[in-house]
Design a protein that fits this description.
Blueprint (H helix, E strand, L loop, with lengths): L2 H10 L2 H13 L13 E5 L15 E5 H7 L6 H6 L11 H26 L1
Antiparallel strand pairs: 1-2
């Protein structure tokens, strides 16, 4: 492995990269900026500013799903690679799925209650 890849791999383990990656994922709302997907997310460098990895800001990276990231690099990806990667953890946003379930339960109860009330009146 050449020196550039060794430095790059060390950078990917740094606190700077972890903070930058997390910030970019938040800015892109945990969605791929190409296809809108939210699974197998990666953060792609648009530039490296002359090879200095630490001189990188959120404007130098974008959120991409694994498939779009490989496509940007001109590489093909197999189904096995997609399935083997874990999903990116989504940020806690008020349990949106639970909120929708609760809303539907309330609607169904209201409709059912109205039906029962109309049956009891007649």
């Amino acid at each position: 492995m050449n020196d550039w890849w060794q430095r790059y791999n060390r950078y990917l383990e740094s606190d700077h990269w972890a903070r930058l990656r997390k910030a970019r994922l938040r800015l892109d709302h945990y969605r791929c900026t190409r296809c809108g997907g939210n699974y197998n997310l990666t953060v792609h460098h648009l530039s490296y500013r002359g090879g200095d990895f630490y001189d990188c800001t959120t404007s130098d990276v974008r959120t991409l799903c694994l498939w779009c990231h490989e496509k940007v690099h001109g590489r093909a990806i197999g189904w096995g690679q997609l399935r083997s990667r874990r999903a990116e953890p989504m940020p806690a946003q008020g349990c949106t799925t639970l909120a929708w379930v609760f809303l539907w339960i309330c609607i169904l109860l209201a409709v059912f209650g109205a039906l029962l009330h109309s049956v009891n009146i007649h």
